Amino acid sequence: MLLVVSDEAEATQMAEMLKAFVPNPSDVFCLPDRNALPYERLIGDTLTTQRRMQALIAMVERERTPIVICSARALTQLVIPPQELSAALFQLKTAQETDLNMLIEHLYNLGYEPVAEVEEPGQFSHRGGIIDLFPPTLPRPVRVEFFGDEIESIRTFDQETQRSLNTIEQCIIGPAREALPGRGPEAVKELSQLDSRILHKDAEERWQRDLELLGSNAHLKILPSICPICTARPVYWIICHAMVC
């Protein structure tokens, strides 16, 4: 179910109110507006990205019937296509046979950033038979420990102390952000057809640098600002997700 209200403040207030009246409060989501305007060179804050991904992923999970509240502005903003988002989801659970190297490659493909220590949603780290990752669907990061190719345990951990907390049986892993990295090269091909010579010299140089980043492994740095470009055609809005759920 998708409810549209006038602004984000009202959406947040209604979401909190509805949680008191539904059997499962975890199925109520507020889809916040993007901080940046389309194509604006600003990176949205981590919390906003996490909340948006939680709502979008909940709307494509088949076993869930979420209630999502958003503002009229959020309704007009482009989102990742529901079919593409659904196809990108996968589950990790204990005793599951999973190739560690393939999992790492898959995390790269979903836009996760490799770091030494996981602190924010959308990051992962790898040491030996352990992978730490912070899916946007979870309030805390998880530590996945392997024994050979089998997942031996999955535990949440505190990103500040890096200490393990609770053991969980399974978790859903989704994209780190609203545009999959694979869209980068596609965007380069499309944008390269535009005539950048009409731009001011500084703007043209920045444009060319962005194209180089989009075509390389470093394009995650600017991915949020070109999210609409990296959205598959035809374009999709949140209302398309509502039709799926």
From TrEMBL:
Signal peptide: none
Molecular function as annotated in GO: ATP binding; ATP hydrolysis activity; DNA binding
GO biological-process terms attached to the record: nucleotide-excision repair
Matching InterPro entries: P-loop_NTPase, UvrB, UvrB_inter
Pfam families: UvrB_inter
Annotated UvrB interaction domain residues: 91-178
Keyword annotations from UniProtKB, A to Z: ATP-binding, Nucleotide-binding
GO CC terms in record: excinuclease repair complex
PANTHER family in the record: TRANSCRIPTION-REPAIR-COUPLING FACTOR, UVRABC SYSTEM PROTEIN B
Name listed for the protein in its UniProt record: UvrB interaction domain-containing protein
Organism: Dictyobacter kobayashii
Taxonomic lineage from the root: Bacteria, Bacillati, Chloroflexota, Ktedonobacteria, Ktedonobacterales
